[in-house]
Each structure stands twice: as structure tokens, then as C-alpha cells.
Amino acid sequence: MPYQEERKQLLKTVQQAYKVDLIRMSAGNISTRAANDMVAITPSGIKYRYMKAEDISIVDLEGNLVEGPKPSSETPMHTAIYRNVPRTESICHTHSIYGMVFAMLEEDIPLMNVELMVCGAPLPVAPWAAPGTAKAGEVTVDIFLSRPELSVILLRQHGLVAIGNSLDQAYEKAYNAETGLETYYKSRLLGTPQPFTRDQINEIKEVYGI
Ligand SMILES: [Zn+2]
User: Taking the domains of the chain in order of start, what are their residue ranges?
Assistant: First the structure.
């Protein structure tokens, strides 16, 4: 099977993300760059629970299908990011609960905890773009290009998108963002959480070398 290694690696990440509830049913999608300027991406409409390596689609950088089943309907967003944001090797896009909750508000997510810090917080909410459209790619590309430190963006009334220099890293960014958002949400129920001060940020950066 062509692109076997990429498909295997992607399936492994899919299974990890499914296990921790980042992706559910067939919502959300994950991709990675493959050999010959191709992209391996999760398919359209196949439930993650049943997905096999041969179900992974291979598309070119314009989103045309090269191998495998029909790719995710959100392929245009993934390929736009690969074409325009060179630091991206892999993408993890989720409809995870807390990503969706905050994506329905128009407020940036402040730098509240280390989990959000490693995602490049404050995290912006992108302007509205219907899922699956070229515009969804344009709005995310604009933000990623203007914020080189940023690896996670909330997609308005939709979910979140995380980029990384490997499948593991894109998955970890999405996971960290979801954890950071969940704890921020819960602390807002109990009181008024305060973002890190400039001094605290410098202190953490020094300790972690970030
Ligand atoms: Zn989506």
C-alpha cells in the first residue's frame, strides 16, 4: 500500500486522540505531510472507532484525491495551512468540548496556565468561516502567519485547530489547549481567575526554556 508509513503513523494519532475524547464519532480531522509533497488526512464520514490504515486518504497540496477514500470535507483548511504556513508538518483539528465552548465566545483566551502558554496563548478566535470552505483556510493562515509563536487557534462556533512539527506535537498542542480551556472554564465558574503577570511569564519561560 503506498504511503503506508504515513498512514500508520496518522492512524496511531487518531486512535490516541479518540481515546481521550479530542475527536468523537467522525467529527474533527487530523493530517500530516507525506512524501512527494502529499498530505495524509483522515477520510470523510468514517467513524474513528472503526478506522483502518487503508481508510486514510492521500491528497496533493491543492486537496485533490490521489489515493484512498474521499478525504475529510475540511481538507481545504488543512491544505491551505500546509501551502502557506511552512512551520506546519501536522494538523490536529478537533470539535472537542471546551474548544467549542470558547469558540462560541468572541473573546481571546488569556494566558491562564502553562498548558495554554505552550500553545502560544493568548489564543485568538478566528473570524467566522463555514467548516469545509476555502475561507476557513484563509482566516487561519492569516492568523498563523501574523503570530509565529502560535500553534492553536479557536475556529468561531466550530472547534480548534492545532499545528505542530510532527503528528505527536500537533496532538499534544490540541490536548494541552483542551486541558487549559477546561480548567479555565471551571475556574470561571468558581471565581475570577487571573492571567499570569509579565514577571510570572518570564519566570516560567526561564525554567522551561520556552
Ligand atoms: Zn471541523
Answer: 4-208
Cell 498542542 identifies what position? 173
What distance in angstroms lies between residue 128's CA and the mean position of ligand 1's atoms?
12
Angstrom distance (rounded) from CA 58 to CA 88 = 17
Element (H, E) at 182: helix 167-190
Q: How far is the CA of 22 from the centre of ligand 1 (A)?
A: 12
Task: State pLDDT tens for residues 38-95.
Answer: 999 999 989 999 999 999 999 999 999 999 999 999 999 999 999 999 999 999 999 9
CA–CA dist 34, 25 (Å, integer): 25
Q: How many H helices and E strands in the chain?
A: 7, 8
Phi, psi of 60 (to 5 degrees): -85, 180
| Percent of the chain whose pLDDT exceeds 90 | 92
The H or E element spanning position 124 is none
| Helices 134-146 and 75-84, axial angle in degrees (round to 10) | 30
Distance (angstroms) between ligand 1 centre and the Cα of 183 equals: 23
Separation of alpha carbons 37 and 34, rounded Å: 6
CA of 74 to the centre of ligand 1 (A): 6
How far apart are the CA of 199 and the centre of ligand 1, in A? 37
Architecture of domain 4-208: 3-Layer(aba) Sandwich (3.40)
Cell output for 95: 470539535
From CA 73, how far away is CA 189, in angstroms rounded?
35
